[in-house]
Amino acid sequence: MLHKIELTGLKVWGYHGVFDHERAYGQDFVIDAAVWVDASKAALTDNLGHTINYGTLARVLAEDAKQNPVDLLETLAERLLNKVMEIGGGSISKARVKVHKPQAPIGYEFTDVSVTVEAERG
Fold it and tell me: Which domain holds residue 110?
């Protein structure tokens, strides 16, 4: 049985972007993540050690997003996805990461810009 664990709206200050002012001053990035894991044993034993700790998920995402600035959201999202897939020693069967850039430098009024990536273990 697969359990979906979601973390939404993780706000991180980062320096990602193509423009110099984005790298110099930074901006908010918002990260959503979902992982699918068989947590049946955790449900039976009520033991956190048999599932994915969402606190660990948040820490891994936030710490990585704060460092090593990149130009593209695509690059950041894929890097974060790879980090997520490493959590739990291979127990995650599928993961999705979505990175939002709500203050993207667009000359029009908008609500959000985001990139979503997914991976599955084959």
Answer: 3-120
